[in-house]
Amino acid sequence: MAVNEVHALQLSGAQNQTYLMNNEYTYQIPSYALSYIYNGDDSGLEQDDIDSIDAFLAREHYIDTWDILDESEYFCTTPEFGLPCNVIDLIGIEFEKEENNQNQ
Prior knowledge:
4-stranded antiparallel beta sheet; 18% helix; disordered N terminus
């Protein structure tokens, strides 16, 4: 599996660590779940919805960050969790941690 070095980033405060994009996945996420995924805001969600989102996030635990692929909502009969609804395409990005050697 090739690592895409174009997506390398140095996080501030993370000494001697570079994060290279390892994998990128696309998900059809119910639009009602975005606030919870990004901000932890569960206001307006039923407990069943929160449980479904938590189960999804636990299943996809290797994702390091989320990004919106396209802000356009569309109806989907098979979202990542829950019943058919309007979804937004999200990208889940997994980084590979690589230790830098400062002696080189």
